[in-house]
Specification:
Distance between the termini: 16 Å
Shape: globular
Number of strands: 5
Largest sheet: 5 strands, parallel
Order of helices and strands: EHEHEHEHEH
Structural class: alpha/beta
Number of helices: 5
Helix content: 25-40%
Strand order of the largest sheet: 3-2-1-4-5
Radius of gyration: 14 Å
Strand content: 15-25%
């Protein structure tokens, strides 16, 4: 990876029970990036999203893959505060997106990055879904819509 690439690890949290193999592959890949940023899905106390999840739980602690910072994410995509944090890494010209059981979140984060004018791409082999290769489908949709 060029030194101008960052890795954005979406919601790789213990509560989502990611497969150890995927965690190891993300941890190994993270060494090739100049910066690694993780997101942590967290419910806000009175969030409508909490109600929709029924149990009100979030994903728990973030799994350490060598990230420099953790961005709290109260919904599917990246909010203004998260985008601001990513923009602070001025040397990063493109972000690679990875994650576990996060097909919808990866798509939403991709849309957030696109709306903010931040280049990104989805790294298919470092994504997983509870019900199969969801990230591959998400990556295909993002590629068709945005060419990423």
């Amino acid at each position: 990876m060029p030194q101008s690439s960052g890795l954005l690890v979406i919601d790789l949290q213990f509560g989502f029970s990611p497969k150890p193999d995927l965690v190891d592959r993300i941890r190994d890949a993270a060494q090739d990036y100049s910066v690694v940023v993780a997101t942590r899905f967290c419910n806000l106390p009175d969030s409508l999203f909490r109600t929709r999840m029924n149990d009100g739980n979030d994903g728990g602690a973030v799994i350490d893959v060598g990230h420099a910072v953790v961005i709290d994410k109260p919904g599917y995509g990246l909010n203004h505060a998260a985008i601001t944090v990513l923009r602070e890494f001025t040397g990063i010209t493109e972000w690679g997106l990875v994650g576990s059981r996060t097909g919808a979140c990866i798509m939403a984060c991709g849309f957030s990055l696109w709306d903010a004018g931040i280049p990104f791409h989805v790294i298919r082999d470092l994504c997983a879904s509870e019900k199969g290769p969801m990230c591959g489908a998400v990556s295909t949709i993002l590629q068709q819509k945005f060419g990423v």
